[in-house]
Amino acid sequence: MEILGRRGPVLFVNDSKATNANAAARSLAAFEDIYWIAGGRAKEGGIESLRRLFPRVARAYLIGEAAEAFATTLAEAGVAHAMAGTLDKALAMAAEDAAREGRAAPVVLLAPACASFDQFESFAARGEAFRAGVAALEGIALEPMATGGAGGDAARAGEAGGGVVGASAAGEPEGRG
After folding, report:
1. Which of 3, 43, 48, 108 is packed most tightly, with the most Cβ within 10 A?
2. Which of 115, 116, 96, 114 is nearest to 106 (CA)?
3. What is the pTM of this model?
4. What's the pLDDT tens digit per position in 116-139?
């Protein structure tokens, strides 16, 4: 989990490594008032196992192949959600909503609970796209580690301080399956 920066009270966190529900659970458990960006190529079980954490989600922004299935699960649980389609649209929507809704400690969290291969070549590429999108937001105050390039989350996971909250245990590798 990598803290990228803050715009006003809104914190932006990248956990693109959360490629399954088990890994996403760690990120969702770490925050309240979450504007959750989720989706991609779903793994078995989808997000059903995350239901106990849904009360922490202010709104979900769904991307990729899993969007419709995730929307069904979220609707059944009464969680507000939007079909964003792509990561850049999800980030724009989440950033706007988090700033506008006036919650005490809003967090825009990328913890997809999915593989990235429907839209990106890897979870690292998805994380870099999110990092670049956050860096481009007007008024963003970036964490020092969030401005780094090559190595991304994997390089930061072992470093203390900076923008890293802790290494996300993604469970199993994404694989191409």
Report:
1. 108
2. 96
3. 0.83
4. 999 999 999 999 999 999 999 999
Half-sphere exposure of 87 (CA within 13 A, CB side): 24
- pLDDT score of 153: 39
**What span, in angstroms and rounded, lies between the C-alpha atoms of 42 and 176?**
12
* Strand runs labelled E in the chain: 2-7, 10-14, 34-39, 41-42, 57-63, 81-85, 107-110, 114-115, 141-142
- Residue 74 near residue 119 (C-beta atoms within 8 A): no
Rounded Cα–Cα distance for residues 3 and 77 (Å): 28
Given a cut of 80, whether residue 145 has pLDDT beyond it is: no
C-beta separation of 4 from 77 below 8 A: no
Residues 6+ apart with CB under 8 A from 137: 7, 12, 95
Which one-letter amino acid corresponds to residue 171? G
d(CA 10, CA 167): 22
* Strands 81-85, 41-42: pairing kind: unpaired
Compute the distance between CA of residue 93 and CA of residue 151 in angstroms, rounded to an integer. Answer: 28
Determine the residue type at 136: A
Q: How far is Cα 122 from Cα 171, in angstroms, rounded to an integer?
A: 15
